Amino acid sequence: MDSRSAAHVLSQIGALLQVKGEQKFKARAYAGAARSLIALDTDDLAPLLRSGELADTPGIGPATLSVVRELVETGESSYLNKLREGMPEGFLDLLRVPGLNVAKVQLVHDTLGVETIEDLERVAQNGQLADLPKFGKKTAEKILKGIEILRRNAHLQRFPAAIIEAHMLLANVVKHPDVSHAEVAGSIRRHNEVVADIDMVVECSADPTKVAASFARSPGVAESKTREDRGSVDIRFADGTHLDMHCVTKADYPVALWRATGSSAHVEEMNILAQARGFEIRANSLIKNDGTRVKLEDERSFFTALDLEPIPPELREGMGEIETAARRELPQLVTFDDLRGVLHCHSVYSDGTATIEEMANAARERGWDYLGISDHSESAFYAGGLKRDKILLQHDEIDRLNAQMQGFRILKGIEADIMADGRLDYDPQILDTFDYVIGSIHSRFSMDGEAMTKRVLTALDDPRLTILAHPTGRLLLSREPYAIDVEAVLEKAVQVGVAVELNADPHRLDLDWRYCRQAKELGVTIAIGPDAHSTAGLDNVHFGIGMARKAWLEAGDILNTRSAEDVLAFVRKRRGK
Asked: All domains of the chain, ordered by start, with CATH?
């Protein structure tokens, strides 16, 4: 049994434990053990079991070790089989369909015999699904649309999952004795919100063709295909991971890294510029018109040889970055270190898992000066939204904590729901008690574009609204943005002085970076919000920073690169005080 196949089984167990409502730490333990197995990168776990090395591997505990031992000895897991008992064959796949939960999947299985997504599609189309309790025609239509989205995005994964997988692969690649250096390239290096495959460029101290061939025989490889340049190989692992590996010499590495990073539009435009400046980009070389090859030390020297300011990977989308680099006018892109605090965070007062003090201490550990607590408002009953008595209790607690914490401040915020008519779901007198107000939509997503736009524009007219959160409502790979005139919303935000959020939850990353760039051009202030529901969730800002950089944003474009006092000044200006 190879380590990647065993990891796939542990991942399935972890996923099933999670959906069955088992203790979260058990599900996390199996997921963590799966990552540890992938990192081992061996085609035979038996020797590691016999020697005791596997038992000593970080992340492998007694329960997960027992499962691995059974896999090695029998090729299957009785625990996984037990968890699957009475479940549809495609249970985990069915749960990915928007509108379905564990109870509904069990219902369609028990009453209609649904085992797979294909079965679900059939009963939704023929009307059987609409006749079931708790479903109906609209739900059936929503499920059909969800199936369409899943199929369209089947080859994609969100950035966090892709980068974790990429770094685990990278850690194994650099252990190869003939590998001098390697980097992740492609859409991951450009910080795209969704990723189709993992690109990697590998500098080899031996024949790149032989190195590529050795990786094609790695544990868990289901199929591989060597491409024309012979140093490149497409690898598909048994768990579905797709690795596009480019093995090159040291001399070829700079151009190979640039080319593999992409995008295709950027590469095409760079080829045109190179020709105009008396060069040719041939394979992984930069060639002068006289046929001599330009010696390059690194990727940066590739850009300077073409008389360009080095272009950060995030900007390489063929959207004006080359012309801007030629003028040496590229923006000074925002970094994590520019952040002074965060404003979109939840606590145990609503649906968060950490106390306000725990969240504040975690924010301090990240080097920030302030933390805004913005729990859900009373309309979000499903998330423990705050009624007036809980607001008073929370504000008292924040006052006590602020009195104790030197050099750090907790701000009193709220994530108020924007109702169907555009009103915020608290009276003005209550909203005035908060340091700032975030407004967001959590219901009635199916309104037509005109009505939804009017709803948001009405909310923007409320002087108590500080930040418009996750403005298009999208959930990457599972829910499309709702119909809304984004440009009209951005123009209104500038007019009234409301910040627009770049929600850094990796399932959202909303506002989309393309619109964020438009927002910058219009003069909109952007707030990078982690939408943190735990202390670990504060680290979502790293994904938000990546998207902000793709949008050409600088520190001055972002609200929470300012001090707490300057944030409050922004609020006062908005409120006309």
From this structure: 3-84 (1.10.150.110), 91-152 (1.10.150.20), 336-575 (3.20.20.140)
